[in-house]
């Protein structure tokens, strides 16, 4: 696992925070209403985000671990993974620059295949009145169908092992934390910086060029 991959995961999460706020922000905000003891809101918010991070890591470990079992038996499969990594990195770059909504189809697939089954567990966790429930609430909503998260997950399948896959998703989750935790502790200035067009254009282009680099390496 290269340093550039780790940095990509972190930046992907950081710049995707605006999308995370749109997808998960309402859930995180509703956590305040779901908590009976308002003095525990900050603690439960941190546990919620820890649970979300754990779900990302578990998903990354499963995706990378399973894919590498196939890749180790087939050079063709390994080649496909390399190409997909480049393609999705380019899509993420375009998505960050808000030039396309090319990741929306992933959300639809995730909603049909995963989320419609898991969301039924939500009622068992409300009201959030314990540390365990706050953690479990975050772990559940970590599987919310989000194009950016699923793209990071699809990129993680190219990692060489389950540990690397989990590490990639961990860095992605860390990138989302400033905005998600800031939702509870107020971080308007930070969100304005992330949503600035110049910032998005610069980093979006970085992702696109990195994706093209990955494609060139795979095709050589």
Automatic annotation (TrEMBL):
Question: Which InterPro entries has this protein been placed in?
Answer: UreH-like_TM_dom (IPR039447)
- Record keywords: Membrane, Transmembrane, Transmembrane helix
Is this entry keyworded Transmembrane helix?
yes
TM region(s), chain numbering: 6-33, 53-71, 77-97, 134-157, 163-186, 198-219
Domain Urease accessory protein UreH-like transmembrane, which positions?
9-213
Supply the name of the protein: Cytochrome biogenesis protein
Q: Organism, per UniProt?
A: Pseudoalteromonas piratica
């Amino acid at each position: 696992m290269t340093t550039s991959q780790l940095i990509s995961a972190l930046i992907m999460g950081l710049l995707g925070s605006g999308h995370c706020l749109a997808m998960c922000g309402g859930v995180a905000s509703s956590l305040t209403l779901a908590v009976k003891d308002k003095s525990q809101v900050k603690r439960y918010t941190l546990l919620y985000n820890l649970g979300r991070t754990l779900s990302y890591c578990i998903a990354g470990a499963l995706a990378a671990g399973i894919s590498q079992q196939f890749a180790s038996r087939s050079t063709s499969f390994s080649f496909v993974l390399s190409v997909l990594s480049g393609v999705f990195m380019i899509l993420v770059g375009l998505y960050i620059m808000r030039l396309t909504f090319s990741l929306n189809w992933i959300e639809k697939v995730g909603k049909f295949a995963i989320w419609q089954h898991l969301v039924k567990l939500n009622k068992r966790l409300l009201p959030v009145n314990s540390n365990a429930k706050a953690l479990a609430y975050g772990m559940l909503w970590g599987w919310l169908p989000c194009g950016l998260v699923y793209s990071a997950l699809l990129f993680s399948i190219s990692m060489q092992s389950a540990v690397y896959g989990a590490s990639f998703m961990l860095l992605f989750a860390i990138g989302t934390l400033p905005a998600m935790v800031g939702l509870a502790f107020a971080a308007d200035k930070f969100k304005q910086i992330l949503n600035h067009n110049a910032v998005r254009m610069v980093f979006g282009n970085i992702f696109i060029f990195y994706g093209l680099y990955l494609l060139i390496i795979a095709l050589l």
